[in-house]
Amino acid sequence: MYVGIDVGTSVVKAAAFDGEGRQLAVESRPVELSLHGGFVEQDMEEVYGAVVEVLGKLTGRVPEPVELAGLTGQGDGVWLVDAEGRPVRSAVSWMDGRAHELLDQWLADGTFETVFRRTGGAMFPGSPGPLLAWLDRYEPKSLNAAAAAVYCKDMVFQRLTGAVRAATDVSDASMPFLDPRTRSYDNRVVELLGLTRRRRLLPAVEDRIATGSARGEGLPSGTRLSNGPYDLPACALGAGVTAPGDGLLIVGTCLAALVATTELDLSGEPAGLYISTDRHGHRLRAMPAMVGTAALDWVLSTTGVTHAEVDGLLASTPPGAHGVRVLPYFAPSGERAPFVEPHLRAELSGVSLETTPADLIRATCEGIGYAARHCLEAAGLTGALAVCGGGTRSPAWMRLLADVLGRPLKVVEGEVGARGAVLAAAERYGVSLDAGGWTEPTAIVEPDAGRSAYYAKGFQEHLVRLDVARGKAGR
């Protein structure tokens, strides 16, 4: 069997596949996020322990030899480790907002735009550049004690394999220090962010994802393991999104829009990033918004509605949700795609005493759909669109999303990131797998022409409301 490991923000998963890509079993375990005053952190030992636990359960449940394993995980943030990959402090999550004042400064003095024009990465508070600069200013002892500032999957890979040096791949390194043309760190960007004296902390970039042998924790000793790419490009691989112009929408905690491209356009409003891949000259234009299903989760929690009730409630109220509108920017660090606005917050309008929970839920789903359309258009979608993530479990939401986006959706279910991690590992090890068969969509959801026309107008109204909200946030 083939094993894919996906170290997510809130859930760690391991999935087993057979040689044709059929998903045999999945094991998962939630991990905690610590949120306080805009700080969002994770316990690295808990995360690593969860990886070992789910792998042990999976390999015990499916007692077949493991041909190879692929690793992926959440991107961005800062995971400070010692020489053995063990934590120096808690990991700072990509959702963290502590560095927003530094980002405000860089937005005002032109540093932010200069970095984007050099790397194609629009920094946000939870990206490594601002976080490292914040730690250098306010917590230098942590940086002094660290051997490397890695990413989530890199910490796990080093611990699972006993690798002697910290390393990452070109996908994780893409934000914000990697020059996408040379595929190496841009030292001028390091200098611009005031991090020259911390340059040693940046992990080595493996221009083909690193490989190693498992030491026996979770995976059988000697199992071939590959490190990367991180979760966004891994999902693109797992959904079969490799042809230029084709796109993927991940409806998960983070609403991420990805479009495959061979172009590199560093003009226009700085936003999102270019994710380098193992294929030289091929990139993903990424617009990863800060909040996806987390926005709906908040509304469900606030209204006391369960996930099981969502489909029925979506069917009980019409498009437009009786005038209720939601700008779904709930993240404490604002928004990062398809624009960067650290102070932007969610807005609900058109609410009255007659508003029902169904109206609030539909309006939230519509608002998330409009945000997705904004991201996909900015990323340059011209071809087919695949969709994956937890949101795909709601058929009613997928129909709504197809209508809002005005295009068919190729729904890819199962552990798409883990599947992509296996495909990346197979390519790295020279193992022949039928990628087309592995990435076959589960269903295709067609939009309704009448509702799509309605939502096309609604999208334009959404952009107007967003412009007003951004103007207020900027004051």
Give the tags.
6-stranded mixed sheet; alpha+beta; 475 residues
Structural account:
The structure is a single chain. This protein is α+β, with helices and mostly antiparallel strands. The chain is built from 16 helices and 24 strands. The protein has helices spanning 44-61, 100-109, 111-119, 128-138, 140-145, 152-161, 170-173, 187-192, 231-238, 293-303, 310-315, 357-379, 395-405, 416-429, 435-438, 449-473, and strands at 2-7, 11-17, 23-30, 34-36, 39-42, 68-73, 79-81, 91-92, 148-150, 167-169, 178-179, 184-185, 204-206, 210-213, 224-227, 247-251, 255-261, 273-276, 283-288, 325-327, 347-349, 385-388, 409-411, 443-445. It has a seven-stranded mixed sheet, sandwiched between helices. A six-stranded mixed sheet has the order 3-2-1-6-15-14, with helices on both faces. The chain has a three-stranded antiparallel sheet with strand order 4-5-8. A hairpin with a 2-residue loop joins β4 (34-36) and β5 (39-42). α12 crosses α13 (395-405) and α13 packs across α16 (449-473). The radius of gyration is 21 Å and the shape is globular. The mean pLDDT is 95.
Overall residue-averaged pLDDT value: 95
In DSSP terms, counting alpha (H) and pi (I) runs of 4 or more, how many helices? 16
The portion of residues forming beta strands comes to 15-25%
Largest sheet, spatial ordering of strands: 18-19-17-16-22-23-24
Stretches where pLDDT is under 50 for at least 5 consecutive residues are: none
Radius of gyration: 21 Å
Distance between the termini: 55 Å
Assign the structural class, choosing from mainly alpha, mainly beta, alpha/beta, alpha+beta, or little secondary structure: alpha+beta
Spatial shape: globular
Taking the sheet with the most strands, its summary is: 7 strands, mixed
Q: What share of residues is helical? A: 25-40%
Number of strands: 24
